[in-house]
Amino acid sequence: ERKLFFNKIFSEIEKRKQYLSVGQILVIKKFDSTPHWVKELKLNVEDKNSKLKKISDKINSIAIYSLTESALNQATEIIKQILPNIKVHTSHDKVGNQRLESYAKTADIFVIVTSSAKHAATEFIQKNRPKDKTTLFAAGKGSSSIIRALEEQYV
């Protein structure tokens, strides 16, 4: 049953891989596990038309706030693969502090994962965020939502 399940997923991804963004491909590659079905997919991550690569000469840093540390770590890893010269700052603090204030004031782009956030910290970030800086809100809790928020901003 497990093999049938993975074969169905593999088949669907294979049919639609030309529509996947670099970020989506990297998220899928994170799912590689015991069956190693992901390695069989011929997914190209060297897309020169990457939506995120287009902004790499315009920004220096991205900050991400979420209480889900694993999502922060995975998103950071994926962003660094796509944008190796961009600094990625993360925070999972429950309340505002100097570090979070610094990120809010200086990061070119700030992604807030509202589904996994404390209201006090979210308000703190927004209060300290300059109007000329981009603030994005991830729809879900995971790393794919963080990557999607960034990619959708720069279509």
Quick take:
The protein has 155 residues and is α/β, with parallel strands linked by helices. 43% of the residues lie in helices and 12% in strands.
Structure description:
The model has no long low-confidence stretch (mean pLDDT about 80). Helices cover about 45% and strands about 10% of the residues. About 25% of the residues are buried. A 4-stranded parallel β-sheet has the order 2-1-3-4, with helices on both faces. The chain has 6 helices and 4 strands. It has about 160 residues and is an alpha/beta fold. Helix 5 (about 120-130) links the parallel strand 3 and strand 4 (about 135).
Rg: 17 Å
Strand content: 5-15%
Q: What structural class do you assign from the helix and strand content?
A: alpha/beta
Mean pLDDT: 82
Unreliable residue runs = none
Strand order of the largest sheet: 2-1-3-4
The total of beta strands comes to: 4
| Biggest beta sheet summary | 4 strands, parallel
Q: H/E series, N to C?
A: HHEHEHEHEH
Helix content: 40-55%
Q: Any descriptors?
A:
155 residues; 43% helix; globular
Question: In terms of topology, how is this protein built?
Answer:
Blueprint: H1 2-16, H2 22-29, E1 61-65, H3 69-82, E2 87-91, H4 98-106, E3 109-112, H5 119-128, E4 134-137, H6 143-153
Parallel strand pairs: 1-2, 1-3, 3-4
Helix pairs in contact: 2-3, 3-6, 4-5
